[in-house]
Each structure stands twice: as structure tokens, then as C-alpha cells.
Design brief:
single chain, 182 residues, alpha+beta, four-stranded mixed sheet, four-stranded antiparallel sheet, elongated, transmembrane, DUF3304 domain-containing protein, membrane, transmembrane helix, DUF3304
């Protein structure tokens, strides 16, 4: 039996196998494709929000914030808030891109001092609060962390650089009760 006869026998066997089982073969081949397509549709329509988070700090404290973290993701710092100086706003640094998960938020921040506060005897302090994490909707990748007097913290998600509690925000919502400055 020559080489070409062997090739012809193998070809006949493969053709016969395919003719008998082509539905099964195409079913097995298409399963991974259908699985990936179904997973992509699920992610686009029904999956919970996920992905990188940007932390944006807002401070109403009269002391500088040296740094903070939310569930282990480090954030930036902010200068002391001075309501008499229109150029010293409440906004601080922005930190991108980390991951913040969980139903509760553990916020740890370090307050430091200005020269006048140091001369008055104030020193660096570390504060910690555990609070419920606000609900995150699709497209909301910015977590705004507001530090308020009296060791109070306010968290809010947004889909842009404006805090949800800022009146200039397109999605403005009033802050919860007992968070306004006294």
C-alpha cells in the first residue's frame, strides 16, 4: 500500500466520522464561544459595578490631612480649610486607581498641624472610623471622602469629579442628616 492510498483511507475515515457526528462536533466547538458571549452580555447588563476607583478628598477641617485610606486604599492629602481664604478650597488630592470593596468602609486618616497649631501644642493625630459603604451604581468610579469637624466622615460615589453633595454636581443629592458643619 502506497503513501497516497494511506492518505485516501484516512481521508475517507475522517469524512465518514464527520458525516456521522457533525452536529456533536459543532456543538462542542461552539460551547466556549457561546459561554464567552453569554458572560459578556451578563457583565454589560447585570453584573455589579467593579473596576478601578479614584479617591477624591474634601476637607472642612482646620488642620491639614497628611494622608488617609479607605479599606486599605491610600488617598492623598489636603491642606487646612480656611473659610476666610477663597483660594484655599476644600478639595485636595486625587488618587487613582485602586480597589475598594465591602459593605463597610474603614477610613483611617492622619491630621497634622500648621505652624500656629504646633506652637499652640497640637501634634499629629491618627483617627479611624468604620461606617457603611454607600451603594455604588454602574459608571460610578469616583469615591468622594469628606472630612468634617468632629471626626465625622461622609462618603459618596459619583461618575465625575464633582462630589454628589456639591450643589454644582449634575447628580446633586443633599447630604445625610447630621453632616452639616455646626
Amino acid at each position: 500500500m502506497g503513501f497516497w492510498e494511506k492518505v485516501e483511507r484516512v481521508d475517507t475515515a475522517v469524512a465518514r466520522f464527520y458525516a456521522r457526528r457533525k452536529v456533536w462536533i459543532w456543538g462542542v466547538v461552539s460551547l466556549p464561544v457561546l459561554y464567552v458571549a453569554g458572560w459578556m452580555v451578563w457583565v454589560m447588563l447585570w453584573a455589579p459595578p467593579a473596576g478601578g476607583v479614584t479617591l477624591i478628598i474634601h476637607s472642612k477641617l482646620d488642620r491639614p490631612i497628611l494622608g488617609f485610606s479607605v479599606n486599605g486604599m491610600a488617598g492623598g492629602n489636603a491642606g487646612a480649610f480656611d473659610p476666610t481664604n477663597k483660594y484655599a478650597g476644600e478639595n485636595g488630592a486625587t488618587t487613582c486607581c485602586g480597589s475598594v470593596h465591602g459593605k463597610t468602609a474603614e477610613v483611617i486618616w492622619t491630621v497634622t498641624y500648621t505652624r500656629a497649631q504646633y506652637n499652640a501644642g497640637l501634634r499629629t493625630e491618627v483617627h479611624k472610623v468604620v461606617m457603611p459603604m454607600p451603594e455604588r451604581k454602574r459608571g460610578e468610579n469616583d469615591l468622594h471622602v469628606h472630612f468634617l469637624p468632629g471626626d465625622r466622615v461622609l462618603l459618596g460615589w459619583s461618575d465625575n469629579a464633582f462630589s454628589p453633595y456639591d450643589p454644582r454636581s449634575p447628580n446633586h443629592t443633599p447630604p445625610p442628616v447630621n453632616t452639616e458643619e455646626q
